[in-house]
Write a sequence for this structure.
């Protein structure tokens, strides 16, 4: 995932410069308002095209007015014949679910059919709210983090953490390219975030609950987490809607460099989908919680960068991340084998 | 200056050719591994240039005789076919000599 359409539209006639998988890209609305992405590099003097503006579907360089088309070919430049100007790279993009999705790798392997589908977008039965964080840490550390929710007890002690998480073992299963890690806690007290959600859904926040966390990793770097609480003994995850408060934590993790990524986070829920105020409240709560992850990951990355040769431990609680990384490694090897030229990005050939 | 014969003769097998500068009354040999522009610049002939890859049009030069071998991306195919002008940074010769309006 490159960006949200809202983010792009908020810039008006300015384009959006963003590095994805080590590729410096610039996103803009081309002819017929369709989003395009090209290299953020003017073929004239190397100026970042993202400093320019968009005029009638063309990206106009902010240095000397070179007009770039969505295919990476120069369309026009005042006082010049542009026929021989070298083309710059362009990247396949699609607009879906209110976001822009880009294929950063080998453009000959672009396959729109690989774009995953999500039931909670464009669906009136669901509400969605989310945000974007720029995290100065390897995207794989975020995958590790989300495929192991044991950290909630410590990192999120005041919101969603509770000791029962540590005390309940988790189970990891792999189904093809999917990794599922789950933990079910029975007959516990709901932590503060879930008490708020229970109240919002008309449930007694002090009632005993069964709580679940089901993390689902799918390529390239998407993690959807079923989270929720149901009144104890009503079937947990499978309880009837009136007995539970639950949602899907939505994580789209887009690599920027080896040590940074764009973290598009959100929450999709089926209870009170029309309650816009609740969406805002949940987004604020989630934003605070995920800011705690960001702080931890950035300092973790700084430590790892300082001691690059130190071996780290992988424990039973890390098995979800281990399996997810194996799938990413396999897909990377696959794409590089299919590619005729050297790989250029961290993740190439998968829709980020 | 007698260049009439060479501007009608085919290019030598080694790829080298002569350029005759009509205004200056000078003659230079352009070997296969050098451009006209490079030979003239090295000899102290002041010719304008910029991109040196046949894109920008700065070194556009009028051709008085001989047939250029066009390699540039600046001239249109029609302009190239007329053989009355060339980009001396990258284009070469199909005849043993070219006469340029320099």
């Amino acid at each position: 995932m490159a960006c949200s359409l809202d983010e792009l539209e908020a810039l008006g006639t300015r384009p959006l410069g963003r590095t994805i998988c080590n590729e410096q890209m610039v996103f803009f609305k081309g002819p017929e308002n369709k989003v395009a992405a090209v290299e953020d590099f003017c073929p004239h003097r190397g100026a970042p095209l993202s400093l320019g503006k968009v005029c009638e579907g063309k990206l106009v360089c902010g240095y000397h007015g070179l007009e770039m088309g969505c295919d990476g070919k120069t369309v026009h430049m005042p006082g010049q014949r542009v026929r021989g100007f070298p083309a710059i790279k362009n990247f396949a993009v699609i607009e879906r679910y209110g976001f822009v999705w880009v294929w950063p790798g080998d453009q000959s392997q672009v396959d729109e059919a690989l774009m995953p589908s999500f039931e909670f977008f464009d669906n009136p039965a669901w509400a969605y709210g989310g945000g974007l964080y720029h995290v100065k840490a390897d995207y794989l550390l975020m995958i590790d983090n989300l495929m192991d929710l044991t950290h909630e007890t410590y990192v999120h002690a005041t919101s969603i953490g509770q000791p029962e998480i540590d005390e309940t073992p988790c189970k990891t299963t792999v189904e093809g390219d999917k990794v599922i890690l789950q933990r079910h806690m029975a007959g516990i007290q709901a932590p503060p975030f879930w008490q708020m959600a229970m109240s919002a859904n008309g449930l007694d926040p002090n009632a005993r609950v069964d709580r679940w966390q089901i993390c689902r990793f799918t390529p390239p770097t998407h993690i959807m987490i079923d989270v929720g609480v149901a009144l104890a003994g009503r079937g947990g995850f499978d309880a009837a809607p009136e007995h539970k408060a639950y949602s899907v934590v939505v994580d789209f993790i887009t690599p920027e460099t080896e040590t940074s990524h764009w973290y598009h986070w959100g929450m999709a829920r089926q209870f009170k989908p029309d309650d816009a105020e609740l969406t805002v409240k949940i987004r604020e709560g989630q934003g605070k919680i995920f800011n705690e992850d960001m702080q931890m990951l950035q300092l973790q990355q700084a430590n790892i960068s300082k001691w690059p040769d130190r071996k780290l431990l992988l424990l039973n609680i890390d098995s979800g991340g281990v399996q997810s990384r194996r799938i990413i490694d396999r897909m990377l090897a696959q794409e590089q084998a299919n590619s005729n030229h050297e790989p250029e990005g961290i993740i190439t050939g998968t829709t980020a | 200056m007698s260049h009439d014969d060479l501007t009608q003769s085919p290019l030598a097998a080694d790829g080298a050719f002569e350029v005759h500068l009509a205004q200056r009354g000078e003659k230079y040999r352009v070997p296969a591994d050098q451009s006209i522009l490079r030979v003239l610049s090295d000899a102290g002939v002041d010719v304008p240039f910029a991109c040196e890859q046949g894109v920008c049009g700065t070194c556009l030069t009028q051709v008085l005789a001989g047939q250029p071998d066009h390699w540039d991306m600046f001239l249109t195919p029609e302009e190239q076919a007329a053989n009355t002008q060339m980009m001396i940074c990258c284009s070469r010769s199909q005849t043993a000599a070219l006469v340029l309006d320099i």
